Amino acid sequence: MGLEISFWILAVVTIISAVAVVWLRNIFRAALSLILCFLGVAGIFVTLSADFLAAIQILIYVGAVAILIILAIMLTREVEKGSLSNKLKIPVLVTTLLFLGVAIYAVINTSWSVVTLPPQEPTTSAIANQLFGRDGFVLAVEISAIMLLAAIIGAVTLMREE
Amino acid sequence: MEVGLEHYLILSTVLFSIGLYGALSKRSAVVILMSIEIMLAAVTVTMVAFSRYIVPTELTGQIFTIFIIVVAAAEAAVGLAIIIAIYRRRENIDASKIDLLKW
Asked: Which among A27, A41, A96 has CB closest to B30?
């Protein structure tokens, strides 16, 4: 019962804050509601018994990505202009609602082969075994390390004064 | 009402649509990047929900979610660096005015 209540509260908070990100005129407030949206997603991970991912979500998104976005807003003086829409606002809205309807129709009418097993808890050691164990994802871990290095070097190169 | 896989999938579909609307209809490049982050969060919710309800004994969806988060962090860093570089050069990050490559 507690799971249901927390799911509905988190879902409402996440969706309202996501709408606020695209709705609010003040970009700084939009960034703050983006943080709330990320926190809601982390809570949804907890209801899915993915405890490690919830911690990672808070650490990386709320701790790093949101700070980067707020820093970019402050460096580009976007707050003065506000978050404006382009000419395609109405067609985009119609297309998005159409996509939403079709996707929800597809989700409801598909018979998912749901397995009613209890989830693994805690997940941290199981994820570590999957990532670094035999027949795991070690190659992907190494590649993502190289990709992060490339991203850091790229960001530094782009931001350097000529 | 029992919360099942469909609830999580519909939640992530709604989140993805909100992000899609923002990414396609906003002028400011920073807001477009924020909308893309919302879309990525929606995809991670889908991954974890499938991992929880379809294959609860393996954690493949959660592993993929970790890689999505890594790529999203790198994308945010490089994307914001590009936005700030454009702002230095043109004093403006309106995505509909940055059209040098547009035919």
From this structure: A27
Q: Under a CB-based contact definition with an 8 Å cutoff, are residues B84 and B101 in contact?
A: no
Domains of chain A with CATH codes: 2-79+119-159 (1.20.120.1200)
Is the Cβ of B68 closer than 8 Å to some Cβ of chain A? no
Name residue B97's amino acid: K
Question: Coil, strand, or helix at residue B28?
Answer: strand
State the DSSP H helix or E strand holding residue A62, giving kind and residue range, or none if neither: none
Instruction: Give the pair of three-digit tokens for residue A47.
Output: 């209801």
Calpha distance A129→A137 (Å, rounded): 9
Burial class from Cβ neighbours inside 10 Å (0-12, 13-18, 19+) for residue B92 reads middle
Which of B25, B73, B96 is opposite residue A92, by nearest beta carbon? B25
Whole-number pLDDT of residue B45: 94
Domains in chain B: ranges and CATH: 5-90 (1.10.287.3510)
Distance separating the N- and C-terminal Cα atoms of chain B:
53
Query: Is B64 at the interface with chain A, CB within 8 A?
Result: no
The answer to whether residue A160 neighbours chain B at the CB level (below 8 Å) is no
**pLDDT, tens digit, for every residue of A60-91?**
999 899 999 999 888 887 777 777 788 888 99
* Residue A160, phi then psi, degrees to nearest 5: -70, 140
